[in-house]
Design a protein that fits this description.
The chain has 15 helices and 13 strands. It is of the alpha/beta class. The strands form 2 sheets. It has a 7-stranded parallel β-sheet with strand order 3-2-1-4-5-6-7, sandwiched between helices. 43% of the residues are buried.
Length: 377
């Protein structure tokens, strides 16, 4: 009689929160559905996953690997040797852990991990967060068993019979539109703002955005007399300098914070959001149906953020402001949107079409089906 062991998931990826948190969301959902399941992460030594994954309660194996260096091409001469060493190290992990499936979520380490999994005939799956796949995922997509996408229309990059439109899995994100309405009054008290006055949330992420901060600084007088309210998240490292520089210029309707301790309160009070165009941020905003102005960061691989933004903009589900033009046009565009109730309602309706609240659940179910099909074969 064959003894079937608990499911073993090997999840590979990292480098940024945009890869790490979807990976953790998948792992959390697996544990929820199958409490006895075993999960092992593979990450790149020296990258943030080596800290964040153990903090979340999961084991991770680190390997030495680097990505393609676009600025200093000569440094790529050693890349093939690094990949070979990485695959040799990964072979030991595969032999010890014996995964039932290997999942890649993006980052330097995904390439060699999935290549090895494909070569050894393990069931394999990639989760692509962006509207335009990177080079590695384009290559892997031809050979993995399943591809879970956040955006439609990627059949030109991947085999159509392998695609599942699941959305991006969000970790510890349990908010919905009804919840936000219920806590709006509490949120207004928390920020010392008026619940009945239209409010914009300007968020640059945990590190902040220089472009968004400079745009806000340039229009403080206009903001003060606009008749609207603004929650401005500067990023932890930027807050102190900004406070010294413009403390006396801030009006009572502009709340400047380094970090948003109560993100649910910020979302509850926000009638309009200004954000970078990271895949996970967009997925959150879609679930909450927030009218959004996207200012894509130009400093990401393959200009992913602009492509993410354009996937929405072409369907009139978001407004685009180019980074280089933001200082001049962002705040006028924001105030114009705050004044246009019909446009806000339309944007809210159209971005909600991208909402995928069950992404993690669907991805785990696809992975389990791949495992069971392999066991039956």
């Amino acid at each position: 009689m064959t003894i079937i062991h608990p499911y073993r998931f090997l999840i590979s990826g990292g480098g940024t929160g945009g890869h790490i948190y979807p990976a953790l969301a998948i792992a959390d959902e697996l544990r929820l559905q199958h409490p006895d399941a075993e999960v092992l992460f593979v990450g790149a030594n020296g990258r943030m996953e080596m800290e964040k994954i153990p903090q979340a309660g999961y084991q991770i194996v680190g390997i030495d690997i680097a990505g393609f260096n676009r600025k200093h091409l000569l440094k790529n001469l050693s890349l093939p040797f690094k990949i070979l060493r990485a695959i040799f190290s990964l072979r030991k992990t595969f032999k010890t852990f014996k995964p039932d499936i290997v999942i890649g979520v993006g980052g330097y380490v995904t390439g060699p991990t999935l290549r090895l999994a494909i070569g050894l005939r393990y069931p394999s799956l990639i989760q692509e967060q962006n509207s335009y796949p990177g080079v590695t995922n384009k290559i892997l997509g031809k050979k993995v068993d399943s591809i879970c996408l956040a955006y439609p229309g990627l059949e030109k990059f991947f085999p159509a019979d392998k695609i599942a439109l699941t959305g991006n899995p969000l970790r510890n994100f349990n908010l919905n539109q009804a919840d936000l309405k219920q806590i709006r009054a509490t949120a207004s008290e928390y920020f010392s703002l008026d619940a009945n006055t239209k409010t914009a949330l300007i968020m640059g992420g945990s590190l902040g955005s220089r472009t968004l901060n400079e745009s806000m600084k340039a229009w403080l007088t206009t903001l003060a007399s606009s008749g609207y309210q603004f929650i401005w998240q500067t990023g932890k490292n930027n807050y102190s300098n900004l406070e010294l520089e413009i403390k006396n210029q801030l009006s009572s309707n502009v709340k400047m914070l380094g970090y948003l301790e109560k993100m649910d309160y910020a979302y509850a009070l926000a009638d309009v959001v200004v954000s970078r165009a990271g895949a996970i941020s967009i997925s959150e905003l879609a679930l909450l149906a927030k009218p959004v102005i996207l200012v894509p960061s130009p400093n990401v691989a393959e200009d992913h953020q602009t492509k993410n933004a354009m996937a929405l903009v072409k369907n009139e589900a978001a407004i685009l402001v180019i980074d280089a033009e933001a200082k001049d046009v962002l705040i006028p565009t924001l105030i114009e949107l705050l004044e246009d109730n019909a446009r806000c309602e339309s944007l809210s309706h159209k971005i909600y079409a991208y909402a995928k609240p069950n992404a993690a659940k669907e991805i785990v179910e696809i992975a389990i089906n791949l495992i069971e099909n392999k066991r039956k074969a």
